[in-house]
Amino acid sequence: MTQDIQEQGQGCFTGAQRYVLDDELAGIVNISMSLEMPLLLKGEPGTGKTMLAHAIAENLSMPLIVLNVKSNMKLIDALYQYDTLTRLNDSRFGDSTRDVSRIEDYIKMGKIGQAFTANERTVLLIDEIDKADTDFQDDMLDVLDQMEFDIIEIDKTIRAKHRPVIVITSNAKKNLSDPFLGRCNFHHIAFPDPEMMRRIINVHFPEVDTELMKNAIDTFYQLRQIDAVEKKPATRELINWIRALSMDPDFKPKQLAKGEIPYLGVLFKKSQDYAAAANRVQRKRKF
């Protein structure tokens, strides 16, 4: 597989300085580039879906373009925008250096348009596609399949100079259509197990105290098991929590083993979750 990718003039993704991945994930990234297919990533928030696109761009030295999908977004907004208001003002007041008869001067590329018109190959991250409606999803993949779209105001077809590496993320809040799924490769990023989490923490804190890392990770996974918690703390919360513990001159790692858990607000961001965790900690300390 790696040889096939290299023969097509593509780099081989091997990970990034601050992104830890397993062989299966690296493999699906590389085969998606080889097949020139979008890679759809699912997994709970905080598992590194979005950061994977950043890691690919870093590792392969490509610019990263991010399309943050909104619930009310129309596909045309991701392709291009025609600034009719500015053109109207230029026409009315006549104090612009632009020629109002040249509509193309008032066309601005959206994120997909930017990826198509870039002079070098890019990584295009389409983040949280499940926020969009089904028509947006399917029409977008039509454009990405054809690698072109029309600007109707100037009767011009924009064709991609280079096929971008396309990463699409979903938090699985809504089901994606079968045609959409059929045109993507897929990978589910599972939440890291404790051993993988230790590798991740070592990347972010190479000189972290061994006892602090062990006790923090053990406590973190215990807190994630609280049934009443709606939004379980993710990897980014653990990283910030370890950073907070490391900055506290009065904190001792053995406190965690005793059930003394400071800075719960770094881990839990909803009132009911914070209350459930605090209640769990209080009950545990009684025994």
Number of domains as seen in the coordinates? 2
Low-confidence stretches: 1-9
* Fraction in beta strands: 5-15%
* Head-to-tail CA distance between termini: 55 Å
Task: Specify the CATH homologous superfamily of the largest domain.
Answer: P-loop containing nucleotide triphosphate hydrolases
Kindly report the CATH topology of the largest domain: Rossmann fold
Report Rg.
24 Å
* Most strands sheet: 5 strands, parallel
Let me know the number of strands: 9
Structural class given helices, strands, pairing? alpha/beta
User: Percent range for helical residues?
Assistant: 40-55%
Backbone shape: elongated
Sequence of strands across the biggest β-sheet: 2-5-8-1-9
The CATH class assignment of the largest domain is: Alpha Beta
- Average predicted confidence as pLDDT: 91
> Number of DSSP helices?
14
Tell me which CATH architecture of the largest domain applies here: 3-Layer(aba) Sandwich
Provide a descriptive summary of the structure in words.
The protein has 14 helices and nine strands. The chain has 287 residues and is α/β, with parallel strands linked by helices. It folds into two domains: 187 residues, Rossmann fold, CATH 3.40.50; 92 residues. Helix 9 packs across helix 10 and helix 10 packs across helix 11. The N terminus is likely disordered.
